[in-house]
Specification:
The structure holds 2 protein chains of 2 kinds.
Chain A: E1 16-23, H1 26-38, E2 44-47, H2 55-59, H3 66-92, H4 109-131, E3 155-160, H5 168-177, E4 181-187
Antiparallel strand pairs in A: 1-3, 1-4, 2-3
Helix pairs in contact in A: 3-4
Chain B: H1 3-13, H2 25-28, H3 34-54, H4 61-91, H5 98-108, H6 111-129, H7 139-144, H8 146-150, H9 157-188, H10 192-219, H11 232-257, H12 267-298, H13 301-308, H14 315-334, H15 337-341, H16 343-365, H17 385-408, H18 420-424
The chains are: A alpha+beta, B mainly alpha.
Chain lengths: 189, 430
């Protein structure tokens, strides 16, 4: 039986998206991320206006599966490219060019390569967007005036209510203990 | 650059700790290697001895000198690869690779030595052997061949000797200067020596590129004087970088095994070295295919003749072995992140790369034994293969012996390079 997830609702009847807390320095947010990772949370994210080196490990992010998809699609593209050319000039419409044999592999290489690249490029872009849930038009966090600072000078962590371990009071208390400031409830879904 | 942005956690988490403890003698100096030297010496004596002995056996003299030249050109490529990477690292002011640079320098200084070794056969052919391997040195073709007479301004004995001396001079100057600056910096700590090395690399890269290309024309392409390929210099250069980085891995990984370079050459560095191996696998394939493809398409007799003899009598298997082993196999293996970060896996790939690199030289040189126009019976690649194996083993033993001596003679990294901290803290964030 699938585990039923608790749904939290504010007093006004709005669903709760999560709890957000701000942090003062990159080191603070880095250490807080390590603690949250160790506490076993999975549905949360760090927001910062610049890349913080090593934050992936601090958050316990797993490596993306994207390269695997790209490799499979890319090899499929290369194979299709080769077969297409072989079928056209080696089987369906044989033509003598410069006395060369029918369906030689040599002239097929550039187009095989190009189709491999083309398929890889498209699959990379499309899968990246899909895995990130993009494009999306709005996000509950964007309602928060202070969150907009995350594109300027604010560092924040938001733990989402979708997380199994999420509890409005305990999560807030943990963030407070980790040095979070301006802790706030985010509404929306 | 905002320090908070790029190194926010580094500064706080690592507390700017000093790296002095990593530079202790037991970590940066190699004093062992006695038994390794013995092994290499035995390899060199047995291998080269067997090659010389084979000249008086059923395989014949021509086969012996072809095998010797193949092995010499393969080892020369490794040394030139070391020179290329040293030059390019200075030019780019690369920080991450400082802890690797000394081993590239150690390879680099043997480029002039290997050039001398690789000059034995052409000089023998020129003065004694009457063009047995280098056909343009043969009196008969010099008298009869119109093609050769058109090329006589370039392919003549005196200019050939001048060019050999020029390559020797260029490589000696580059190796002597760059290696000298690096070692002097170990003692004086003068950071301006890095700038001098960079200046040397600026003209050195140009001189290296031209001399490597022309050396490959003289020492490999001119064996069959009818053949020409404007891609040839790049083709040999691709092999130098390919084998040079493989050789680096085979120096670094055993040193790590011996407990050296702890914290100096980490899996982060190996990861990037693996990327270089991947790069030059693809680069070689691109160059090799481009050369073959254009010759195949345009179908001009004096070009196709080179590939024609290499696509029959069993040589077609070597041809496809190169396509698969020199490109597809290392390409697919090196795609994986884990392979690039594992010293053992990387060393295995490097051994394979050196094997296939010598197969490439084998493919270039050995068919010359029977490509003497219509003369001689076709010789399959497998016939007398032990001579080729012996030559390669012997030559690797010789180079290994020199390298062990050189690695022992100085610290394993440039101890006081101003960019050393950058290299120690190097990390791949993806």
């Amino acid at each position: 039986m699938a585990k039923q997830r608790k749904v939290y609702v504010t007093e006004g009847g709005e669903p709760v998206y999560g709890v957000i807390a701000e942090f003062a320095t990159p080191a603070d947010v880095y250490h807080a991320a390590e603690k949250i990772r160790d506490a076993g949370y999975s549905q949360w994210d760090v927001y910062a206006p610049f890349p913080i080196h090593g934050i992936d490990e601090a958050m316990g992010q797993k490596r993306t599966k994207l390269p695997l998809v790209c490799a499979c699609v890319g090899l499929t593209g290369a194979g299709l490219g080769f077969l297409m050319q072989y079928w056209m000039s080696g089987v369906d419409y044989q033509l003598v060019v410069q006395g060369k044999p029918y369906g030689p592999w040599e002239p097929f290489v550039p187009i095989t390569f190009e189709l491999g690249i083309l398929f890889t490029a498209f699959s990379t872009l499309i899968c990246m967007l899909a895995m990130n849930g993009l494009p999306r038009h709005n996000h509950p966090l964007l309602k928060k005036e202070r969150f907009l600072g995350c594109s300027d000078d604010t560092l924040a962590i938001c733990i989402e209510s979708a997380d199994d371990k999420f509890d409005p009071d305990q999560t807030r208390a943990m963030l407070e203990k980790l040095g979070g400031r301006n802790i706030d409830l985010v509404e929306g879904d | 650059m905002s320090s908070i942005a790029s190194h926010g956690h580094d500064a706080v988490l690592h507390n700017d700790q000093s790296h002095e403890h990593l530079l202790r003698d037991s970590n940066v100096r190699y004093t062992g290697g006695g038994s390794l030297s013995t092994l290499f010496l035995v390899m060199a004596v047995l291998g080269l001895g067997a090659t010389i002995a084979s000249a008086f056996m059923y395989t014949g003299k021509l086969h012996a000198i072809a095998s010797f030249q193949m092995a010499a050109m393969g080892c020369l490529a490794m040394c030139l690869g070391g020179m290329f990477f040293t030059l390019v690292m200075h030019l780019m002011a690369a920080g991450w690779s400082i802890t690797l640079r000394r081993q590239f320098e150690n390879l680099m200084v043997f480029a002039p030595v290997m050039l001398i070794v690789a000059s034995i056969v052409p000089l023998y052919d020129l003065f004694i052997g009457n063009g047995s391997l280098y056909l343009w040195m043969n009196d008969k073709y010099r008298a009869d061949s119109i093609v050769l007479q058109k090329k006589i301004d370039f392919l003549n004995p005196s200019f050939f000797c001048v060019r050999l001396m020029l390559y020797f001079f260029i490589w000696t100057v580059i190796a002597w200067k760059l290696s000298g600056y690096s070692r002097r910096q170990d003692e004086t700590g003068d950071k301006w020596l890095s700038n001098k090395a960079r200046f040397t690399s600026a003209w050195g890269m140009l001189a290296f590129a031209l001399s490597t290309a022309f050396a490959s024309f003289d020492l490999l392409m001119s064996m069959d004087f009818r053949f020409f390929s404007t891609m040839w210099g790049v083709y040999y250069f691709a092999s130098t970088a390919f084998s040079g980085v493989a050789a680096l891995v085979l120096i670094i990984v055993p040193l790590r095994r011996a407990g050296k370079l702890e914290g100096l050459v980490t899996s982060e560095h190996l990861h990037d070295v693996g990327k270089l191996m991947f790069t030059f696998t693809v680069f070689w394939a691109y160059i090799a295919f481009s050369q073959y493809f254009l010759i195949w398409y345009s179908n001009v007799p004096e070009e196709t003749v080179w590939y024609l003899v290499r696509k029959r009598d069993g040589w077609q298997f070597v041809f496809f072995l190169l396509a698969i082993g020199h490109f597809i196999v290392p390409f697919l293996i090196l795609l994986f992140r884990g392979v690039k970060r594992s010293p053992t896996a990387l060393a295995i790939v490097a051994i394979w790369m050196l094997f296939i690199h010598f197969t490439d030289m084998f493919f270039i040189v050995r068919p010359m034994v029977t490509t003497r126009f219509a003369e001689g019976t076709p010789l399959s690649p497998a016939a007398g293969i032990w001579v080729d194996l012996a030559a390669v083993f012997g030559m690797l033993g010789l180079l290994g012996l020199l390298l062990v001596w050189r690695v022992r003679s100085s610290p394993l990294i440039p101890l006081r390079d101003p960019r050393l901290p950058e290299a120690i803290e190097h990390k791949n964030y993806v």
